[in-house]
Amino acid sequence: MKAKQLLVLAALVSFLIQCAAAQRNTLNSSTERSALRRLRSSLGLRAWDWPIKADPCRNWTGIECRDGQVTAISVSGLRRSRVGRMNPRFAVDALANLTLLETFNASRFLLPGSIPEWFGYGLPGLRVLDLRSCALNGAVPSSLGRLSRLKYLYLSDNSLTGNIASSLGQLNELLVLDLSRNFLTGSIPASFSMMSNLFTLDLSSNFISGTIPAGLGSVSSLKVLNLSDNSLTASIPGELGNLSQLIELDLSKNSFSGALPVELGGLKSLKGIRIGSNGLEGQLPKGFFSGLAQLEVVVLSENKLDGRIPGEVWSLPGLRLIDISANNFTGELPTNGFNGNVTQAIFNFSDNMLYGNLNSSIRFFNLTDLSWNYFQGKVSNDSWRNATLDRNCLQALPDQRSLADCWLFYSERGLQFDDFEASGPTDPPFPVSASKKNRRWVYILIGVFGGLALIIVMAVILVLLLTKCCSKGIPDQRGIADEGVAPDGDGQMVPKEPSELSGLGDVFSYEQLAHVTSEFSESNLIKHGHSGDLYRGILENGTIVVIKRVDLHSFDRESYTRELEIFGKISHTRFVPLLGHCFEHEHEKLLVYKYMPNGDLASSFYRATDLEDESLQSLDWITRLKIAIGAAEALSYLHHECYPPLVHRDVQVGSILLDDKFEVRVGSLSEVRAQDEDSHGNVITRLLRKPQILVG
């Protein structure tokens, strides 16, 4: 009997505990319940994830509660309802009523708009704010510096602009600050040196300028520092060598100058150092790699470093990659100090001035690139399968430097060179002058005559194009003219009415396009074009677009209809894709184009640099040739594959756009005209009259 009583008592206690637990996990506050429902409505979330009649603490996805109050909200991965998808926006004002909220995670959930200023004082308990890939724009609010309990701040992969608020340096408890891949400008705030608990600082892929504050070296807790792909200048401060816990350092793709600080060699915890694509000069500090026993990745490529490669690189036990390509390193490869694990690493020593015979041990390495150096000797191609040896001075291998080039290099340095014959050293194939002045004149003459030859070739091509256009005339066959774009007496096109073009591309609502451009705000304005104003916007699906706003009070009505006609008739990858349009308003028309990440030719070709001798460093000659060919293909299509032949009339550096792979996409098609039989003189007139025109 006593056993039964104990069993009943135990069951009763268990039931009471479960009831108490259920009570704690039930939302008790009517204010917070109302706030969550308003948040559900403003974000347009599906009933499947947040069922309206269920208890949010127990049944709503991403909601966490403690003692009957909301402490965490995550909408990352949730989907909007059909109505919610029509007008996404940053509408989270209801969060202000959740007084104990510690975490708000909306990563990869589109919230177009700017972060409200009240975030800084309306969410005092916030510890985690994750807004990665939310299509945010505008500035980072300075009020965020008041979130004294914040530990994690993720704002990467958005379109944030303006300077970085110095007030963020007041976040003493912050562990992670990630502002990467935005459009932030200005300098790195000196106040960041006060964030004593910070272990990750990522400001990469912005437009930050100025220098690295020396005070960053005092943030002793820092483990990851990524400032890559910005516009930082001057020398790298030696104070960074005080970051004893640093594991990853990435300063690549900036404009740093001076020598590599010897202090960085004391970062004993460092596993990755990436300072490629800068302007560093001088030799590597003596014994630089000796204290970096944990090092796994070294990238110092595309600098101006010189001297010999230190032998310590062979002895790094955990090395996986070392890339010192495109520098001025010289001398022979180190011959001793090989560590057994180093053979598994990838070595890129290409495009330097290394010479001498190859060490036979290197052929057993996992992957090695030694191309574009001056190594000599006879090697077997079969025994060096894991090595790239092109453009050296090696015997019995294809694709090597010329004998004259090799002789000149070795003789300048007073070194002995074995020619491509087995008989041993021979005399130079041509007299080698010891005078650098004479060689300089040779280079100057080559440059002058090469430039003249290029100008002559371009002139001949231009004449042939114009002659062909003139002789071809307007064939009497079906073509663009028969399909609705007929030339008038002045060679212009008679445009159709917009109602006949509604099937071209997607149809957008005015409200939708106004929203994605923040009501056509100045912050989204790209430039004032000659046929309309261009704005940047991000659609709900994350697609970045350019929207041309044509105000018919200011611009010619025919310009946009003519452009639509052209898009409807041409089919070539060399033209900017038209994604859609909006004709809702009688006096305001909107055209939507695909966004070109690398801008126009002017911004890419004339990009500023702090390197005195390489003012056009941003585009190499291969890329320039690729762009020239792409522009020529577009014009050739208009001139020779369209009937009647079309003349662009406005090919400028500003109308040649470049996609993410620097492929040409020609824009400004509102100036395209059909060429009549007597238009040869008009073409010449337009070429001479229009400023900055390249051809066509």
Automatic annotation (TrEMBL):
Q: Describe its membrane topology.
A: Single-pass type I membrane protein
- UniProt entry keywords in alphabetical sequence: ATP-binding, Cell membrane, Glycoprotein, Leucine-rich repeat, Membrane, Nucleotide-binding, Repeat, Signal, Transmembrane, Transmembrane helix
Question: Which positions carry the signal peptide feature in this UniProt record?
Answer: 1-22
Q: What top-level branch of life does the organism fall under? A: Eukaryota
Task: Answer whether the UniProt record assigns the keyword Cell membrane to this protein.
Answer: yes
Query: Locate the Protein kinase domain: which residues?
Result: 520-696
Q: Name one GO molecular function term.
A: protein serine/threonine kinase activity
Q: Does the keyword Transferase apply?
A: no
- Membrane spanning residue stretches: 441-466
Where does it reside?
A: Cell membrane; Membrane
Gene Ontology cellular-component terms for this entry are: plasma membrane
State the PANTHER family in the record.
LRR RECEPTOR-LIKE SERINE/THREONINE-PROTEIN KINASE-RELATED, RECEPTOR PROTEIN-TYROSINE KINASE CEPR1
The similarity comment for this entry is: Belongs to the RLP family.
Question: What is the official name of this protein in its record?
Answer: Protein kinase domain-containing protein
Q: Which organism is it from?
A: Eucalyptus globulus (Tasmanian blue gum)
